[in-house]
Design brief:
single chain, about 140 residues, alpha+beta, six-stranded antiparallel beta sheet, 2 helices
Length: about 140
């Protein structure tokens, strides 16, 4: 079996995504990514399990399991929890995350981001919103 020609391209999507915080009993918007990134951001991304936003949401056989999320963390190699929400990067942290990407060898693809946003195609399933697409290029020494 041959692998997909689209696999391992290295483009990652940054999302703002609502997550149900069962500890606090409220929703919070956190930054997530579509795939585990390469480069230094990898140390700031962690997997968490989250509840469905609504018990009335029914999955189709074609849906990807979205209960496991790749969240952007405030601290390297941390495992944020719902009772310590300061470990999650949130909407107010978007400028800091974009700045981090730019200063650590990532290319924010504004052209592709604009094309997708203008197309009207919803890249973020459900209620998550796409912020941008980015990829990592190791810095040359």
């Amino acid at each position: 079996m041959h692998g997909s020609k689209y696999a391992n391209i290295g483009t990652v999507i940054l999302y703002l995504e609502p997550v149900l915080n069962t500890y606090l009993g409220q929703y919070m918007n956190i930054l997530t990514v579509s795939d585990m990134p390469t480069g230094p951001l990898r140390d700031l991304v962690s997997r968490i399990w989250s509840e469905k936003l609504s018990p009335f949401t029914v999955s189709s056989p074609f849906d990807v399991d979205d209960s496991c999320k790749l969240v952007v963390c405030r601290y390297p190699r941390s495992k944020p929890s719902m009772n310590h929400v300061d470990g999650f990067m949130m909407a107010k942290d978007i400028p800091a995350v974009l700045s981090y990407l730019q200063t650590h060898g990532y290319k924010i693809d504004t052209d592709l981001t604009k094309i997708i946003q203008r197309s009207g195609v919803s890249i973020g399933e459900g209620t998550r919103k796409m912020i941008c697409l980015f990829s990592y290029t190791p810095m040359k020494i």
